[in-house]
Amino acid sequence: MIRRRQALTAWLFLTPAVLFFVLLFFLPIGNQLMTGLYDADGVFAGLSNFSRAFRDPEVLHSFLITLAYAAGTLVVGTAVGLGLAVILNQSLRGRTLFRSVLLIPYLTSVSIIGLLWRNILDPQVGILNRLLEAVGLPGQTWLSTHPLATIVGITVWSGAGYTMVLFLAGLQGIPGLYYEAARIDGAGPWRRFFAITLPLLAPTTVFVSIIGLIGTLQQFALPYIVTGGGPGNATSLYAHRLFIVAFNDNDFGYASALSLLLLIVVLILSLVQLRIGDRADA
Amino acid sequence: MRERLFPGDRVAAYVVLVVLGLVTVLPLLYMIVLALQSDGEVQSGDPVLWPDHLQWQNFSRLFEAAPFGRFFVNSFVMAGAITVSHLIFDPLVGYVFAKLDFPGKRIAFVAVLSTLMVPFFVRMLPIYSIFASLGWIDSYQGLIVPFLMDAYGIFLMRQFIRPLPDELIEAARVDGAGEFRIYLRVILPQCKPALAVLGLFTFVFQWNEFLWPLIATSRTEMRTLPIGLTLFNQEYFTQWNLTAAGALILFVPTAIFFVITQRFLVAGIALSGLK
After folding, report:
1. How far is B231 from chain A (nearest CA, A)?
2. What Rg, from alpha-carbon coordinates, does chain B have?
3. What is the DSSP string of B129-148?
4. Nearest Cα to B205, choosing from B79, B26, B105?
5. In this structure, are B117 and B201 located in the same domain?
6. Which residue of A has its CA nearest to B207?
7. B179 contacts on A by Cβ (under 8 Å)
8. Are residues B149 and B250 both part of a single domain?
């Protein structure tokens, strides 16, 4: 009797959530599966939208540069975030302030970040080249000569603080006892870092990498604002390509197929992460 | 005892931190300098660090050049409504999963959590098509409805409510309190710190949201601030001073958020594991 009342209460309280997740998550995803099977004229096309993606040079290009963007962001971002976390895990004066200041870009609108850096990097009116010239270094045409690397740089700048927070949580799980024992055995700081910190942080590093990978594979706004995908299509990442197919070419069937391919990749990455997480818990 | 890096490492640590701290903050401070320059200074090709005369009128010029007041209101309505909705539904659903027993609970919970894995791109196109046929493009409901609640917030609230003692609920039941009353009077008042974190983060992230408002609006007067500013910059691309003034307005909630949360910001993010 009480159990039945509780079940009734539970489902009553859940009703808005059930409606929301069915109508705005599960039905759209199902709809996406259907739409992916039709061509631009609404004619049933089977799996041709999917096979088309693998032969479309523009999609393949966008996929490859997205991988390069993801790899660059992952390597540099993880190194910077880990370094900051190790430094800020010590008891330093002003630690809290440094930690939170480094997080400001993470809370800042991508419009501000994109537009601000476009101005700073501008070869004519930007301040960065003037600063470089002032110390005797040559100015660069950042966004025309190294567009993708520059986008990676801006991404790392805006995400380093968040990566740092994730690593800080991981560092707090390492018992201080290990370090003391290593010190008594005469292990130096680098030795302690490579023999204790790095191996024990492995689960955190995997977690940070996969979270980062899932995020960068979906990156849209930053290159859209900074370069508009250019020059040419040098920074037209996968998500930007998808956007163009959907809203410039108005080919929703093909865009749906592209979004489902993205979903498959993200699902695989998420499941890998869940499995590794389970193993770490066991 | 905390791990120390090197003997005498303090100086090295501070040098790294100060340099990276400046690299983080200086571009944002430069935005203020940029916003107060004259057109001549900003276009001269010789960037100035301190304008001759602080051009406060850049802000009023901005509001004359484009409907930034309207953009601000649109952003505020969108982020505000979504935040209120999260504060209503996330704890309610979190409470059900934390404290109630019912058939189908496991499946329902897994279903909610599985939505964390879905890229926005996957639901964006069908939602756009449906909203277009409902006439919801260029409307507030169109901006708001896709984000009424989410699995992050629900999970955060569930984790917070789970350790609360069951005896509180049992006692209220024995006293004959209705189920909703128990939630409202017994559980919710205990959740204030978690609700504060949830509300602040939801507001700032929705205020900054870019992709959906870009797609869900086409009329200038329905644009939100991040979109309005980006489009403004495309049109007035030489007037970086005005763009920077607009960026400062867009930055206001982040600044307020930062001041409020500075001391528990890191703990808050680690706790919620947001995005």
Report:
1. 9
2. 24
3. HHHHHHT-TTSHHHHHGGGS
4. B79
5. yes
6. A109
7. 5-6, 9, 13
8. no
Residue of B nearest to A118 (CA): B240
The hierarchical CATH code for the domain A46-281 is 1.10.3720.10
d(CA B44, CA B170): 72
Contact B27 A117 (CB under 8 A): yes
Chain A residues in contact with B243 by the CB 8 A cut-off are 115, 119
Which residues of chain A carry a pLDDT beneath 50? 282
Range of the domain at B201: 70-227
Number of domains in chain B: 2
For residue range A106-138, what is the model confidence (pLDDT) as tens digits? 999 999 999 999 999 998 888 898 888 888 888
Asked if B251 and A108 come within 8 Å (Cβ–Cβ), the reply is yes
For residue B32, the chain A residue with the least C-alpha distance is A116
Does residue B190 share a domain with residue B102? yes
Distance from CA of A81 to the nearest CA of B (A): 11
CA trace torsion A106, A111, A113, A115 (10° rounding) = 180
The pLDDT of residue B275? 43
Tell me which chain A residues have a C-beta less than 8 angstroms from the C-beta of B120: 218
**Are residue B177 and residue B242 in the same domain, yes or no?**
no
Q: What is the CATH number of the domain that holds B205?
A: 1.10.3720.10
pLDDT band of B273, cuts 50, 70, 90: low
ipTM, two decimals: 0.90
CB A183 within 8 A of CB A192: yes
B222-238 pLDDT per residue, tens: 999 999 999 999 998 88
Rounded Cα gap, residues A254 and A249, in angstroms: 10
